[in-house]
Design brief:
single chain, alpha+beta, Jelly Rolls, Phage tail protein beta-alpha-beta fold, 3 domains, seven-stranded mixed β-sheet, seven-stranded antiparallel β-sheet, 9 helices, 19 strands, 30% strand
Length: 324
């Protein structure tokens, strides 16, 4: 278990144990968890050590609500992430675990975020995070997002990979995703942003977003279903590309007349076992189909069945293809 996961678990245990006296079974389960690994023991010690420093937080309405939530039957994954992230902020924020502190903010500022919260995923992993304002953020494979201190705007920094944002409505505090090549601004909407090379892409599911690119004079206003891609030089807009661009949320990748080289690159994003194609001519053949993320074996089977390429050799690390 990673320290991040151990810290999440420590936050949950803290909330449960301070909601009411643990039962004998709960105490046994807690001790089994704490003694199960050095990471668990260290995370629990850090959580307890910061409790005194953050003693005043115990009386906050948010902490009271979280303690109550922790005693309820198991919630869906989204709710679990929200409880874990918030408890970790309220209880272990001083130690740097989820530096996200939710409290009543002045009406002139966005929901308060202390310091910077860092979120990342490994290859093949997806992660759901609930932000302080109620926005739901889904990180795709191999992604990294920072949430800096919020002031008049709710800013997110997409450093690598891709995120899908279901933004809580707050017209007075725009929600902004920074990519380094341009910004995506929303008030209350759902959209995906992917950072790629020198540019980025935006796929809008609902609402409206404004895309500003310093190198392009006029901002672009997207409507639902649209997809915009910027490669660092030019902008390309598709009126119906958003749906296919976000099928990864359901664990699928959709290709429609996609050159094989690009399809392979997309499949490789989700799997540590890579597909390598050593044939430029085969790489330009077109592929249409829907595949599960991370399932490189089925993808290769389809490609070979279509006669687009053949397996030259394979091992645990890669599958090497040649033109058929």
């Amino acid at each position: 278990m990673t320290m991040t996961n151990a810290s999440d678990e420590a936050a949950r245990w803290y909330a449960r144990r301070h909601a009411a006296a643990p039962t004998t079974a709960e105490q046994a389960a807690f001790e089994a968890w704490r003694n199960g690994s050095a990471a668990n023991a260290e995370a629990w010690a850090a959580t307890e050590a910061t409790h005194d420093a953050l003693g005043g937080l115990a009386a906050l309405p948010e902490m009271t609500a979280l303690r109550s939530a922790a005693r309820r039957p198991a919630a869906p994954r989204f709710a679990s992430w929200r409880i874990a992230a918030s408890v970790a902020a309220l209880v272990a924020g001083a130690a740097g675990t989820y530096s996200l502190i939710s409290h009543r903010a002045p009406t002139t500022t966005a929901p308060a975020v202390a310091a910077v919260a860092h979120y990342r995923t490994a290859i093949g992993e997806q992660r759901i995070v609930a932000l302080a304002d109620g926005t739901r953020m889904t990180l795709n494979t191999d992604s990294q997002i920072d949430v800096p201190a919020w002031q008049s705007e709710r800013r997110i920094r997409l450093l690598r990979g891709e995120g899908y944002f279901e933004v809580a409505k707050d017209k007075s505090h725009p929600f902004v995703v920074e990519t380094g090549a341009g910004d995506v601004v929303a008030v209350g909407t759902a959209f995906a942003v992917r950072k790629a090379g020198r540019g980025f892409s935006v796929a809008l599911a609902e609402g409206k977003v404004r895309v500003t690119i310093p190198a392009i004079a006029e901002p672009a206003l997207l409507t639902p279903g649209e997809r915009l891609a910027y490669d660092g030089v030019a902008v390309k807009r598709e009126t119906s590309g958003a749906g296919e661009a976000t099928t990864w949320l359901a664990g699928n990748l959709t290709f429609r007349d996609t050159v094989l080289g690009d399809a392979i690159a997309e499949m490789n994003r989700y799997s540590p076992r890579k597909i390598v194609l050593d044939d430029p001519a085969a790489a330009h053949r077109k592929l249409t189909g829907v595949f599960r993320t991370g399932d490189v074996a089925t993808f290769v089977a389809a490609v070979t069945a279509y006669g687009m390429a053949r397996i030259e050799r394979e091992d645990a690390a890669e599958i090497r293809l040649k033109g058929a």
